Amino acid sequence: MRKILTAVLLSSVFAMTSAQALENTVKPEVTDLGITNPKTGLIVGNSYSFYNCGVHSYLRGLTRETKQPWKARILTMSSAMLSYHNVKDYLTPDKEMDPYAKSHPMFDVVFLQGQSSEPINAKRQATFKKYVAEHAKTIREAGAVPILVATWARQDKPQDTRALADETIKAANANHIMVLPVGLAFAESLKIRPDLIMHQEDKSHPSAAGSYLYGAMMYSVLFKKSPEGLKYQGGCEKPLKEADIKHLQTVAWKTVKEFYGW
């Protein structure tokens, strides 16, 4: 009887944890990419996107397994805010020997990933909003679709998750941009699997599990498909455990479905 009661209690706790709402209180206005099966992408950001051989490598691993036509370029600068990036230059097809210059547009989608505290730092908020608007306009003029990345809270400041998400969503809504809610997915993962470390020892940059979740979120949003069941385990630092990738894939798909109302 004691074993049965324990099993029931554990099941109830897991159900309650799984049923918790996402941390954001501001709802996204854009819930669909507007294009089907994009084939090229540009990732603009900083070390959050560059760690563990780059989030593009995780996305590439997933797309190769599914034979999804996809290629991407990543352009990052250490500690970069959105204002550091000359996005117009990145999207100008006049560079000698640039293979992407043959495509029109050069990229179907462009991810914008800013400095980790930009959306909530009092001194940086105005600049963040300014460059979300400017970059979104530039990206659209180049024929691509902008996607704004909502990053995660530091490991020692989980209370920042909601503010980071809400302020990023507000900036995106003001410019009719889709948000990739990676920070919300980090929080969901930690609710269910607090043992799975999502940050590096600096409590800021993503662990291999964090980069995998980031890539799985990209896959889910770009192709509106679940990554669940895919065998790719990452490969830069070291492959993740099978149980870990199953968990991360489930969290990625659950988060995007709830966030966008799919």
UniProtKB/TrEMBL annotation:
Keyword Signal included in the entry's annotation: yes
Record-level Gene Ontology MF annotations: hydrolase activity
Gene3D superfamilies documented for this protein: SGNH hydrolase (3.40.50.1110)
Keywords: Hydrolase, Signal
Record carries keyword Hydrolase: yes
Signal peptide: 1-21
Protein name as it appears in the record: SGNH/GDSL hydrolase family protein
Species name: Parasutterella secunda
